[in-house]
Amino acid sequence: MNRLGIVLDDRYFNHQIEGPTPENPGRLRSLYPAVKDTFGSRLQVVNPIEVPDKYIQQVHSNFYINQIREHALNSNPFSYDKDTYLMDESLATARLGCGGCLELADNIMADEFKRGFALIRPPGHHAEPGRGMGFCILNHAAITAKYLQQTYKINRILIVDFDVHHGNGTQEAFYETDNVMFFSIHQANLFPFSGTIDEVGAEKGLGYNINMPVFSYFGDEEYTYLLGKTLHAIAEQFMPQFIIVSAGYDGHADDSISSTTLSTKWFNTAATLFKQVARDVCDDRLLFILEGGYNPVSLQDSVMETIDSLITPDVGRVGILHSERAVSILREHPLNDYWVL
Ligand SMILES: [Zn+2]
Predict the structure, then answer these.
(1) How far, in Å, from the CA of 187 to the mean position of ligand 1?
(2) What mean pLDDT do residues 222-250 have?
């Protein structure tokens, strides 16, 4: 019961091109053996299959999926988008990514284990219903949430996204619903340049979309304060039945894609914080999905810290230090109109 469900599969290396790009199989190549060597028998490895069309269609349009198929045939891998390269194995690899998430979700719902981590690629949180972007083809977190709702009649799901970039795709998928709450903490004025505090959801979803843009050079102290002071309180009011974490590691100080300064150890703290929330509101159900993280060294070290926390049954408490810079963000934040902190 204390094992951690995990997806790690060499087929995630199949989406690749010649030439340099930050999102490449090298992100996972030494991470996989390190995870197996360090945590070995405490992991329960599950084998993914490609997600069936009917689940993709819950989030993405057929028009978009056909576009992906057509562009994959083009000799220029960047014919669709300047970041999101496409080759013959791209869609299959993304489908396998989703499949890994669903497999973990099924096992969590069956009480096979309580927590899971899908170490997949390419990432998914930028993929909108009708458009792929930012290295993302299929939105794994969104497809998993829809799948859980449909298969297990779960009414309320919380998706927390701590990738340094705003999860625009996930936001769009659930912007008008109160069934899925989306909470994104990310660096402001960075790709994809969405995710302001005013994007609070619409229609029934008003108040169920929470963006926490932070400034350059924010790090452990501010992130822990902002998540620690909000998530638990909001989750106790929303009462999600399942928590999905879009886990991006590109806010690490050593990742040159951002100027956020999170430490390796912070990713352990963050996982502990999510464990605490999951224990108190949804019987520990917690699924991590790998998003960004483009320095393979800091990515590996930080993922190991996350797993170290997730695999520990005890739920420690996270101490929160006062941070004036973070306090000022919360004071002005429109989430106060919908939730009591
Ligand atoms: Zn990112």
Answers:
(1) 10
(2) 98
